[in-house]
Amino acid sequence: MDCEDMQMIISEEPNLSERKEGGKRGRKPGRKASNEKIDIRAKLERSRQSARECRARKKLRYQYLEELVADREKAVLALRAELERYRLWSSELSEGRIPNGFQQLLEETGFVKQEIVV
C-alpha cells in the first residue's frame, strides 16, 4: 500500500469524536417511565408468586426423592434377607442336608422337573 491508499482509508473511517448524544445504548440514569412506577407492585407480586411456585416444586422434588430412597432401602433389605437365606442353605448343603424351601426353588427355576403322579 502506498501513502495515498492509506490516506483514503483514514479519511473513510468515521470520526469517533463526532458521536450523537442519543447514540448511547442502555438505560439512562434518573429516567423512569411512569408505567414503571405503576408496574412495581405487579412485579413484586409476580416475584412472590414465582417464589411460592419454586418452593412448591422444591417440596415435591424432595418428596419424590424421599420415596425413591425409601423404595431402594426396602429393596436392599429384601436382598440382604435373600442373601442370608442363601448363606444358610449353602452351609446346610455343605453339611449334606437339604434345607427347607430349597426343593421348591429348584422346581421354580426349572432345574428339577416336577414328577407327575397319576
From TrEMBL:
Basic and acidic residues: bias regions: 33-42
Chief subcellular location: nucleus
Region annotation Disordered: where it falls in the sequence: 1-42
Sorted UniProt keywords: Activator, DNA-binding, Nucleus, Transcription, Transcription regulation
InterPro entries xref list: bZIP, bZIP_sf, CREBL2/REPTOR-BP
Keyword Transcription regulation: yes
Any one GO cellular component localisation term in the record: nucleus
Compartments where found: Nucleus
Superkingdom assignment: Eukaryota
Pfam families xrefs: bZIP_2
An example molecular function term from Gene Ontology annotations: DNA-binding transcription factor activity
Domain BZIP: 44-87
Family to which this protein belongs: Belongs to the bZIP family. ATF subfamily.
Name of the protein described by the UniProt record: BZIP domain-containing protein
